[in-house]
C-alpha cells in the first residue's frame, strides 16, 4: 500500500503541473459481461467496475452507455485473451490503473513513459502472491493514457495513422 501511494506521489510530482485536475481524471469503468460470473475468482486481480456491460466488450466502445469515475493515476484498458469452453474469447476491463491489484510497477513504468499499449501476459503483469502463483501465461494487451475518458479504445485509431502516412508520402513527391 505504501509503495502504491509513493508511486502515485512520484508520478504526480514528475508529470503533472496542475494538481487540481490531476486528482480528477475521468475514466470509463466497466468489464465484459461474461467476467461478472467469474468475478469472485478474479477479484484478487481487479477492483470491481461500475458496470458489467456489453458496450464495454468491444474494441472501440459506444461511450454513451457507460459510467465513468475519477482516477488519480492513469486510465487503462486491459484486453484479456481468454479460452472459455475451448473457444477463444476477448474480454475487456476499463478503469483506473489503481483498479489493478498488485501490478508489476516496472512494466507499468515502461508503459507510462510511452503512453500507448503493451502486449504482456498475466504472469508478467501481476506480481506473484499466494493467490497468484498459478496464473496462466494468458496474453493480455494493456493500454494506458492520461487524458479525460481516453480509455475508450485499445489502440490509436489506425485510420488517422494511415491518413498521416499517406499525407507524408504525398508531400514528399
Automatic annotation (TrEMBL):
Alphabetic keyword roster: Membrane, Transmembrane, Transmembrane helix
GO cellular component terms attached to this protein's record: axon; external side of plasma membrane; neuron projection; neuronal cell body
GO terms for biological process, alphabetical: chemosensory behavior; olfactory behavior; response to odorant; sensory perception of smell
InterPro entries: Ly-6-related (IPR010558)
Keyword Hydrolase in record: no
Top-rank lineage group of the source organism: Eukaryota
Transmembrane region(s): 154-172
Pfam families: Ly-6_related
PANTHER family: HOMOLOG OF ODR-2 (TWO), HOMOLOG OF ODR-2 (TWO)-RELATED
Record-given protein name: Ly-6-related protein ODR-2 isoform 18
The organism of origin for this protein: Caenorhabditis elegans
